[in-house]
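To illustrate the input format used throughout this study, we show a single complete record. The first block contains the structure-token representation of the backbone; no residue identities are included at this stage. The design step must infer an amino acid for every position from geometry alone.
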């Protein structure tokens, strides 16, 4: 009898009690609260790294453009860097076309290229405008490049940082000497460049950062 009773007790103890299940659920909930933001931050950081790699690749194209044609591109906005593919300086492939826009932005949110094959994105230079990329290019009409390669203080390309797109905390910028810089929104707020309530960095003529006023979204 005792052996049978012990077996029943062991069988009953083999399962989880309600309290134990609630404890496990609570622990999972706590871990989720702490880990999810870190996962999101890691994903954002990876996209910033990929964006920097895009900028470096575009700079190689701009250098090849200069070496091949003995001049820098003189178009403005997206056309400024689209020329490197349009003129065949960089091969017009699916992978290369994708490097001309920020990897953090959904292609479907860019009306100029949404639903079109990548190799057709930059074929017609005259049709290209700010809807073809989430990068802003040099405004060569108002701020022509006097020298290229140039100064590390002269911006060539940057995230356009639409408040719902690009990177939430960082703006990536390609400079005329080939360096790739970043502007961190938290640091801009601390220094007073951005107001405490401002959630993105304007790029273009109205930017609070002087270097970024020389870029155009079109």
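Output of the design step:
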């Amino acid at each position: 009898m005792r052996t049978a009773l012990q077996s029943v007790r062991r069988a009953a103890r083999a399962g989880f009690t309600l309290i134990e299940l609630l404890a496990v659920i609570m622990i999972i909930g706590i871990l989720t609260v702490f880990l999810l933001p870190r996962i999101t931050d890691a994903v954002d950081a990876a996209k910033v790294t990929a964006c920097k790699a895009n900028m470096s690749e575009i700079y190689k194209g701009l250098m090849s453009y200069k070496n091949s044609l003995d001049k820098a591109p003189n178009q403005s906005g997206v056309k400024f860097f689209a020329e490197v593919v349009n003129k065949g300086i960089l091969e017009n492939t699916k992978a290369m076309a994708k490097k001309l826009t920020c990897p953090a932005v959904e292609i479907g949110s860019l009306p100029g290229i949404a639903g079109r094959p990548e190799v057709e994105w930059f074929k017609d230079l005259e049709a290209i405008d700010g809807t073809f990329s989430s990068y802003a290019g040099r405004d060569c009409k108002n701020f022509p490049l006097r020298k290229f390669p140039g100064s590390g203080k002269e911006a060539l390309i940057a995230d356009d940082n639409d408040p719902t797109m690009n990177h939430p905390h960082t703006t990536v910028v390609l400079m005329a000497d080939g360096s790739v810089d970043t502007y961190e929104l938290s640091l801009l707020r601390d220094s007073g460049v951005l107001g405490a309530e401002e959630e993105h960095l304007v790029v273009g003529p109205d930017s609070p950062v002087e270097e970024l006023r020389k870029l155009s979204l079109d």
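Structural context for interpreting the output: Strands lie at 135-138, 155-159, 170-175, 180-184, 215-216. Helices lie at 2-13, 18-69, 78-86, 94-98, 185-190.
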